[in-house]
Every structure is written in C-alpha cells, then in structure tokens.
Amino acid sequence: MSSSQGAAVSSDAGAPPGTEENHSNPALLRPRTVDIATLSVPQLRALQSRLSSELEHLTTSHAKLRSAQSKFRDCIKSINEGVVGSKSSGGGSGGGETDILVPLTSSLYVKGKLADREKVIVDIGTGFYVEKTTSKAVDFYTNKVKDLEANLRDLEKVVQGKSGNLRVVEDVLRQKVLSGEAGAAPSGSGGGGAS
C-alpha cells in the first residue's frame, strides 16, 4: 500500500486537488510515489493529518481484531472447561444436568442448567446461530482465531508502513519549517506548488 523511501511517499489517495482522474483506467488506480520534498508546507500538513487519521483508524481496527480474537479464545475455553470439562469431572445433580452460569455480558451471569454436553449453539456472526458438536465448535473457533491472527499480521505491516510514512512526512515538514520555508511558501489553491 504505502512505503517510505528517502523523501518519497507512496500515495493511493488520488491526484492532487484540481485534477481529474479516469477511474476506469486500471493504470491510474495504481499507487503513485510522490517526492514529498517538492510539496509545500500546507500540503505536507494535509498529508500529515491524513496519515495520522489513517493510522488512528488502523490502530483502532487492530484493537478490535485483538478483542474479537480474545473472545473466540474465551469460547474455546468455555467449551473445553465448561461443557466438556463438566462431563469428565462427573459434576451435576442427577438426570445428566449440570448447574452452570451463563454469561449474558462480560460481567453479568445467570444460573442455568447444561442439559446436553455433546452439542452447543455457536454464534457464526451477524446474528446467526448454529448447533454444532463440541469438537466442531472448538474447530470453528480455532479457525477463527487463526484467520484473525493472519489478518492481524497483515494489518501490523500496514500500520508499520503508515507509521514510517508519517515519520518521513514529519521530518520533511520539520526541516521545511526550520529552514523558514513556511513563511516563504506561496499559498495557492491550485495543483502543484512552486519548485
């Protein structure tokens, strides 16, 4: 997606203001590399703001994926210790039913009875539930954890790239401001700045 290389930043955000792109041409949809040393201070600030916003969004997404992965691990643990574990420990009060606490939220539980230790109801997403055997349920959640791990690794690479790009932009911006280019930069609303 983006990579930093010296004072160049790859951008997939489109053309500079005031230019039109033909999005039906696949060659124009490829990321472009821009030499950020040629950008004016206002353009660098806009790029810095956009990169900061993207980085914040990606970091939030990373945290949400980690949270989902943790919940799937908790489901595996609940099945292994609560359903299968209660069968092997022989606990329960006659009739094959075992008293359990059913989580309604992360901090609210209600009493319940575990009637069937062979099958569980699995939330497969978007409000759909499916009955599965305990082994298939554990397999389902294990696959979810693995898929999320792969997505997290990919997202971490993107976050590292964006962080690197942001550092490069901030360095160039700092250099331009210190050299006094901020006051000398023309403030035009057109496409490219002065060279």
TrEMBL record:
CDD domains: Prefoldin_5. Transmembrane segments: none annotated. It comes from the Eukaryota. InterPro entries: PFD_alpha_archaea, Prefoldin, Prefoldin_subunit_alpha. Gene3D superfamilies: 1.10.287.370. The keyword Protein biosynthesis does not apply. GO terms for biological process: protein folding; RNA polymerase I assembly; RNA polymerase II core complex assembly; RNA polymerase III assembly. Pfam families: Prefoldin. Residues 1-31 are annotated as: Disordered. Keywords: Chaperone, Coiled coil. Residues 138-165 form a coiled coil. GO terms for cellular component: cytoplasm; prefoldin complex. One of its GO terms (molecular function) is unfolded protein binding. NCBIfam families: prefoldin subunit alpha. Belongs to the prefoldin subunit alpha family. This is Prefoldin, alpha subunit. It comes from Polytolypa hystricis (strain UAMH7299).
